Amino acid sequence: MLPSIISVTKPRHDWQLYASCIILEVKVSYDITPSQASVFIAYMDLQELGLNKNKKNKNLEVPRKNVKLVSLLPGKGMLRYHRALVMIAAGNLEAVVRTLSGDSTLRMNELQSSEVQHILKLPGDNSIMKLLGWCDTVPNYLICEYLSGGTLSDHLTEEFSPQKVHQYGNTKQKRFQVAEKGNAEHLPKYALQVARGLKFLTKHRITSANQKDMFRIVNKLTSPEVDNTLPKYDVAENLANRFVDFFQQKVNSLQHAYPDYGTGNTPMEQCKSKSVFTAFKEVSEQDVLEVINSSPVTSCFLDPLPTFVFKECISDLLPVITKIVNLSLTSGQLPCSLKQAVIIPHIKKPKLDANNLANYRPISNLPYLSKLIERIVCKQFQDYLSNNDLYARMQSAYRANYSTETAQLYVQNSLLCALDERKDALLVLLDFSSAFDTINHQTLLTRLHERYGVDGIPLYWMKSYLANRTQCVIVDQNLSKDVTLATGVPQGSVLGPLLYTLYVAPLHDLIISANMQTVIYADDIQLFTSFHPDHCSDAIQKIQNCIADVKSWAISNNLFINDSKTEILHATSQFKSTTIKSISVKIDQTTITPSTHVKSLGVVLDPHLSMKQQVNAVCKSSYNAVRKISRIRKFLTKDITTKLFVNPGLRSKKVLLDAAGRCKLYDFVSMENAKEWTKLFWNENVPFQWMSPEFLFLETISPAGDVWSFGVLLWEIFSYGSEPYKGQNRSDVEKSLREKRQLPMPDNCPGAIWQVMITCREPAVEERLKIDDVTYKLAAMCHEDKVSVLGKNKF
Questions:
Q1: pTM above 0.70?
Q2: Confidence class of residue 675 from pLDDT cuts 50, 70 and 90?
Q3: Which of 244-253, 277-286, 332-341, 486-495 has the highest mean pLDDT?
Q4: What's the CA gap between 364 and 489, in Å, rounded?
Q5: Angle formed by the axes of helices 496-503 and 441-450, nearest 10°
Q6: Average pLDDT for residues 774-778, to the nearest whole number?
Q7: Where's the Reverse transcriptase domain (predicted)?
Q8: 353: Cβ–Cβ under 8 A, 6 or more apart, which residues?
Q9: What is the C-alpha separation between 542 and 528, in angstroms, rounded?
Q10: Which sequence spans correspond to the domains of the chain?
């Protein structure tokens, strides 16, 4: 028998528990004994759940470890209850079970299916269990689709991938295989599966509204999915522990290599801020909503529910989220539950040895709510820095109207000006080892206070943000042990890169005081100087002294320069009759000679600044892009094709081409013209028998056109692979469409299926069925005809 709610009290006094969930203290009554349970309902408003909050608190104290499993009860709002139930399942069910059981080591695979069902059991109704084909783990995507009101699965088998759904000619072999069975019962089932494939493609239609989504979808369609490379392992948890130990030992080894690190010897710290930042502004619900809408839809393993589900329910959750944000801003505290990072190891380059842990970069994945609060704090802090002109003059990262292109333009312009004055120039690109991971927290807080005027609540908030951070590594859904971070800021955070930028700002003053020029973009630091060829040795000595000062400052601030990865470029005119020989710069025991080319903020520079290698690199990547686009050209509009081709590389940094390299501009022009090649796919390979009237007459692509094409495909299925409009050319087909002539009804085709074909091929777009309606009707027919649905795809 299910328990009944006796009383519900307010959440506990510790408001930080709001950060990951709302906790209700619920007293429940069983047939045998009463017990107390903490029921986790992710961000849901209590009143909307229909729970009674007016009863007095008469909870019976029972140790939490005795609370093994808890079944939830709905109040008067059954729909809200279902919604909360699904949110729990769509989030981190394992964390919920661990909390309810009081066992932090409990794993999902240790639970019996009946126990999981008991946790999420619907009162008097097991339909959701049957609907999901319940198992020991919760298939998140099924639950999320159930929550959104859609079908439970639009996922395709390999033979019905999105690329193949539209390649109608390539599906004939499969259709003939169906026809050879001679069993008409298979045809509705097959039509339903193809309809689901079309629905998938319609949901992921390529549009120009969101360029990031557009490029993501195109890459998914044209490039094979590659799993994240990992070392060989037998037990995933053991590998995760190896990673987390390695990342921690790497930072520790750097610090032990320099016994005088972190001494606070920062001679350039005389700079005092005349402005102060003593309070955050409270934000409104509209402010929070704008940040949420502009944020990427990414989720963390620690999130209680996927971000896209969170956004779908934002109208219900927004008041609670706004309160959480404002409590953090006004109290100067960041909840501990938001300071845990899940590290995903990413190999630095695909060709590196996958079994060498040193070839992996730790990428932090943080809870969505943590990054939401960080975005709001970061916006207010950036406004303060900009309004008071507190950025270093040549700092280009994380400030408005500055970018890698403006930084590189300044570098190249300075070098070209030196060459115009018949001088040479030396450009040094410094490389820091694990820069984000070695930041000294106390030094950073001192710098924020003294150099940038951060005080009061904001300073307390920054201290809370940095203190007691933990991280673990995830491998194949298995988490490593947690380790505490004594230094550094998370690389995947929103605020971390800005704090690093402010941390290294004194370097700008140090380099300028050495009569050198510099550009700083996050952890990319470049310094350069020009000199007359006759004074080459003096220039080299000046650079060596400057680098020595930078290294000394870095060590005192817990940062470490990787001498072996530091690069130097000697820029000189190609028209000089004499050249300087044997240039080398010595850094401690390492001797560095100028490179034949360097990559500066994504731009390849050569000693003569001709940009030839940069143009060649862009052209190479552009030709690769053309080959990819050609595979799906017939499904793209001209506008989208142009954006896909031009945006990635051609326009970027094109301003850097100077008059001396003007002859190479033709390469870019020819590449921009290369997109005309793909028109062959537009005009010659169009399967006009399947195309809608609006496509053939107006070259318009839309979901309604997909439904028309599916109607033709449906006719083929029930014609056992017959060719539509056989023997007719495009003109004949267009004439039939203008006269609104339908294809003949296939023999033995059920009347209901024929009606679907006709409504899919209505000449008027607004009268055609939606793809959701098509799948619904076909699914209903399959059930009525007692044709089982393939796999677990159920409606």
A1: no
A2: very low
A3: 277-286
A4: 10
A5: 70
A6: 81
A7: 327-580
A8: 359
A9: 10
A10: 57-146, 147-162+182-204+643-794, 258-605
Q: Is residue 102 over pLDDT 80?
A: no
Percent of the chain, pLDDT > 70?
59
Q: Tell me which amino acid residue 90 is.
A: A
Tokens of 342: 């899940």
pLDDT confidence of residue 499: 92
Tell me the one-letter amino acid at 382.
Q
In terms of Cβ atoms closer than 10 Å to its own Cβ (0-12, 13-18, 19+), residue 578 is: exposed
Q: Is the pLDDT of residue 722 over 80?
A: no
Q: How far apart are the first and last CA of the chain?
A: 30
Confidence of residue 460 (pLDDT cuts 50, 70, 90): very high
CATH of domain 57-146: 3.30.200.20
Q: 627-640 as b/e, with b when 16 or more CB fall inside 10 Å?
A: ebbbebbbbbeeeb
Distance of CA 754 to the CA centre of its chain: 44
Radius of gyration for the alpha carbons in the chain, expressed in angstroms and rounded: 32
The Cα-based distances of 133 to 139, 152, 300, 306, 574 in angstroms read 10, 11, 26, 21, 72
DSSP state of 63: -
- CA separation for the pair 749, 755 (Å, rounded): 10
Question: How far apart (Å, rounded) are the C-alpha atoms in residues 194 and 209?
Answer: 27
Q: What is the mean pLDDT of residues 501-506?
A: 90
- Return d(Cα 10, Cα 282) in angstroms, integer: 24
What 3-state class would DSSP assign to 736?
helix
Q: What contacts 280, CB < 8 A, 6 or more positions away?
A: 329, 330, 377, 380, 457, 458, 461
Rounded to whole angstroms, how far apart are CA atoms 518 and 414?
Answer: 10
Residue recorded with tokens 């000189």? 572
> CA 449, CA 213: separation in Å to the nearest integer?
40
The one-letter code for the residue type at 92 is: N
Structurally, at CATH architecture level, domain 147-162+182-204+643-794 sits in Orthogonal Bundle (1.10)
Name the nearest CA neighbour of 681 among 165, 167, 162, 164: 167
At residue 516, what is the residue type? Answer: M
Which one-letter DSSP state was computed for residue 593?
A: -
**CA 67/CA 30 separation, integer angstroms:** 12
pLDDT at 327 over 50: yes
> Is a pLDDT exceeding 80 seen at residue 541?
yes
466, 338 contact by CB (below 8 A): no
Q: Which residues pair with 340 in a beta bridge?
A: 470
Report how far residue 521's alpha carbon sits from residue 735's, in angstroms, rounded to the nearest whole number.
61
The sign of the torsion formed by the CA atoms of 355, 360, 362, 368 equals negative
CA–CA separation, 99 vs 119, rounded Å? Answer: 12
Q: Which of 147, 121, 145 is nearest to 134 (CA)?
A: 121
- pLDDT, residue 590, reads 78
507: Cα within 13 Å, side-chain hemisphere: 32
Nearest to 26 by CA among 72, 66, 75, 91: 72
User: Angle 342-347-353 (CA atoms, 0-180°, nearest 5)?
Assistant: 135
Q: Is the dihedral of CA 125, 131, 137, 139 positive or negative?
A: negative
Q: Are 42 and 143 in contact (CB under 8 A)?
A: no
Per this entry, what is the length of the chain? 795
- Is the pLDDT at 463 greater than 90? The verdict is yes
- Distance from C-alpha of 10 to C-alpha of 24, rounded to nearest angstrom: 7
Distance CA 513, CA 403 (A): 25
For residue 412, give every residue at least 6 positions away whose Cβ sits within 8 Å of its Cβ, in sequence order, or none.
603, 605, 609, 656, 658
Measured CA to CA, the distance from residue 327 to residue 329 in angstroms comes to 6
* pLDDT value of residue 32: 22
Q: Which of 498, 477, 501, 473 lies closest to 340, judged by CA?
A: 473
Cα torsion 390, 396, 398, 402: sign = positive
What does the pLDDT read at residue 83? 30
Q: What is the average per-residue pLDDT within 436-457? A: 91
